[in-house]
Protein 1
Amino acid sequence: MAEHVMATVDTPGGDTGSKQLVYRDEALEIERVCIDTIARTVPTPFYCYSSDAIRTAYLTLSAALKPVGASVCFAVKANANLSVLGLLADLGSGMDIVSGGELERALVAGVPGSKIIFSGVGKKRSEIARALEVGIHQINVESEAELDAVIDVAGALGVRAPVALRVNPDVDAGTHAKISTGKKEDKFGIAVQDIPALYTKAFAAPELDPVGLAVHIGSQILDLSPYRAAYSRIADLVRLLRSQGLPIRRLDLGGGIGIRYDHGTSADVGEYAMIVRETVRNLDCELTVEPGRWLVGPAGVLVTEVLYVKKTADRLTVIVDAGMNDLMRPAIYGAVHPVLPLKQDRQGNSHTYQIAGPVCESSDIFGTYRDLPPLRSGDRLAFGCAGAYGASMASTYNGRDLAAEVLVDGDRFRVIRRRQTTEALLALEDETEWQVSSHSPTDLRHAC
Ligand SMILES: *Cc1c(COP(=O)(O)O)cnc(C)c1O
């Protein structure tokens, strides 16, 4: 269940566990586009997403949530590409953002401020001001100090800020420690016992419109029972606040619904909707959920090329041209992504390889995989389930350009983000004047 099992993963030939990712004539296709065809024009590594997979996931989730009246705000941090945001926005999704940068992305993608929720534990005043200017749906506040900042900023702008308090329900999400957010020792949210006083303060402030409560207990949650515990606590809190005469009209139930990285079945959203029904449905609140990973994770692959096969002590290690800077999850969470060769091998897939990236870090290892075809330099592979927290977490470490992103729709594909160029990165940097001329009048060495 936890994703830090650094185990060997089977990639049974043929079955990719995804409707949009299929082998046809031994070649891996995403929807109806052969990935190798894309790789002939787009240099590896690159991300590739299926529009159909994203659409289907959104429609499945919103259908499951419709009977309980909950709406969906996509967590932008999972995949912030404008085309992905646009695709979800066209389906009616709102957005959950955690920074001013994500706010601008959501706006550019065509999402109005009135459909955007601003989450996150460290919002700057400039970000709060911008959110209020664009008519943000709600700001989820995570501390008293932040509440004071919102009061200040709203006061200065002469507007009333719609705020929800993010509750830390002290529930263990049963997930990897680095993606748990709802235990009392986590940095997120406000302790249950501090909520009544803070909500009372918000209610008394003319600059604020306290709309309700928010909760988000963590990510990659496959056993859904922690949701029941958290939402029950929220329901109790709503009843308590209302008994004190405080109005609560919205509940933001957070994200975190898990997917299976080993081709198993992802968390059942029908079961999730049932938990929502049984815990908070009867409170007569507007309900919102904020999934990221569940909507886009299975929809994407990271395509890479084998550079070298080398013998290390007791194994064969395949060095590929994608690294931890492109897909950070294996290195930071010990996550294991499935590997799919772009070409199947008629002789069968029975080879075991450790797959590693080129980055100068020992943790730049994707895992050890059995049942792969014999690999040689120039062969291409796809890491599956890479649509969430892949491109959005990438860095330029080791002087590596951010990978391109490609979107497939039926039999078409389009580059939706060009590969970053080293020139574009270098353009941000200036040589200091005192390096260029040591006799310059602004030479800092003379000032000291
Ligand atoms: C990250 C995050 C989400 C989305 O989490 P997923 O596991 O991708 O569903 C939702 N809400 C908040 C507040 C978050 O920080």
Protein 2
Amino acid sequence: MERKESPIIKDKLPPRLACLEELAYNFWWSWHRSARDLFKQLDRTLWATTRHNPVRILLETPQQNLERLTHDPSFLRDYDAVIRELRQEIQNGDAWYKQTYPELYHSPIAYFSAEFGLHTSLPIYSGGLGVLSGDHTKEASDLGLPFVAVGFLYEQGYFRQRLDHSGWQEAIYPPLNPKEVALRQITAEDDACGAILVDVGDRTICLQLWEALVGRARLYLIDAGVEENAPWDRQLTARLYGGDHEMRIQQEILLGIGGVRVLRALGIEPQVWHINEGHSAFMVLERMREYAAQGMGFDEAQRRVRASTVFTTHTPVPAGHDAFDFGLIDKYFRDFWPQLGLDRDEFLALGSYDAGHYPAFNMTKLALMMSDHTNGVSELHGQISRRMWRTLWPDRPVKDVPIGSVTNGVHLSSWTGAAMHRLYRRYVSPDWVQRQDDPMLWSRIDEIPDSELWEAHVYLKRKMFSTIRERARQDWINRATPPEQLLASGIFLDPDALVVGFARRFATYKRANLIFQDVERLLRLVHDPYRPIQFIFAGKAHPADDPGKLTLQQIYNYTRDPRFGGRIALVEDYDMHIARYLVQGVDVWLNTPRRPNEASGTSGMKAAFNGVLNLSILDGWWAEAYNGRNGWAIHPETETDGMLDQDQADAGALYNVLEEQVVPLYYQRDRDYVPRGWVAMMRESIRTVGPSFSTRRMVKEYTERYYVPALKASMALKSKARPAMEAVEAPAGN
Ligand SMILES: *Cc1c(COP(=O)(O)O)cnc(C)c1O
């Protein structure tokens, strides 16, 4: 296989700056401040207008500007330093993993996910799951894991959101131009089609392949948009979570089965396979098929696959798990099960699960049955998952159901605002990024003077405001947005007053509208003449989720309701770019899921590490992180049963905390206008969340508790089984 280069940029760059191409084509730049600053220096305007996309900056910068920079000693000094840093890190063989597990360094770990959120310029994510996969990949690079990730290149990416004059969400699908993103096409020397073929029902689909470099890690993206495929088959990788069940099963065949074939075609031999959410679980079937083709019996093949497979489930509600009608399984797997040596019933039994209505082929069950190493994404979610799937282990008590938990984390250097980063470097440690999971280090947070910590926050808050205003201005210019609609965008917000942010997917369980339960009470908070409170909302509803869109519309209507006096804003088109400004710039990060529906949540971690205080239901990660001093819990005094009662009780608790604690603390200022009590809470939040809820902690935990045991187990099986592969037969099932 060969990597196609981009001739345009290569021809354009002066030889002295030739390595800019290497830098732009490795997402490494996106979490290294010095590299980001270099591209910003190259052209500040393009940096803003391309929404921080170095490939486009290099494509669009006039050549004479590049030539001029070759005579700019300060730029050249920075350039040399960044390139040195990049090279050192990419080639550095001493990273944590190699030091800790030198004997495992050459055994690749494969990670499959339906979405990856690496950067806004590559919109192949829809929300938390994708951002988590992206952050996981970046951290795997930092820690030096032999890591290779597999996902989809969606030609139309995830949609851009626009609200019409009535606040109804419209989805726009601007085509993704792979040439304007840090992607390289991988082709076989002799075959334009990439030579990766997958049978989907009675058709054979041809896949092309793209590679994204993520520091030391690699991400391979599957793409069915090639001429050899029928037009409807090219659509299979067009959109993220588009289409019906039939489309979905075909996509999942491409990801699971196609993904294994991709790695084979590349000559990569993973020793551990991580299924990140059930979408990619068909991978186990393909690996079973490979073993069967070598003549191995079903039970031994299953034992090997289980030993080397890690599965992470993300969904705490039964209906949220992908499941396919047996009719669809018949249609797409009829020719497959004989290859495993199974009949129809035996095959269906691998995934058959009745989530309440009738049995269907459940991707989570398939993954659970085929992995010896499985986990939920927070302690609470681990418990919920053990209870939810207990019927799969009927003779065990719930606590012994073999589903563990690894709480999610965020990639700190990707999400930390520049102002905070500077403070941490100066007062905590110049190498805080390298030592971020040392809890002792973060006691040094006390070294930062109150006023400086507060000023850094105020700076980030202003940056958020200027971003929001500039967006509104551009919308007004480009779309002639009616002034009335601009009211929604936050132009009336007061940067000095308390700002509460709520930004995430508009799934109904997240209850974006909880704060509007008692409008009169909210109005009193908003209009307090001395201590007003303001709200910024952002988020997309899934294109097929009408209740989610209704919630969005409801909030849009409040933004324009004169009773709220412009103190409620709805920022359109939430994505990683706008998320960055919001998690760094608001004062309070509000999260109101219907417990226990939030498996983990991660946006609050990003906020906490930037000194933004969490105000959240005790669900997901916050149930673990909250200590009474590092933010606030929305915790009703009475337990309720019904959903509506629960909403009411939670809303009541939310108003109470706002009125009695959040607002008074924010406005309690000293002579220098610094809110000392608030700043103390910011410190506590940074100190307790930073080292524990980072991907540094998370990926180390996956490595120690999942990847390494899986590696060792599968190696042991292989060496033991070699003499007489077929001789040992163990009972099937668990
Ligand atoms: C972090 C992030 C999320 C996850 O948010 P939750 O509140 O944890 O659901 C979703 N979308 C984007 C763009 C993010 O950056």
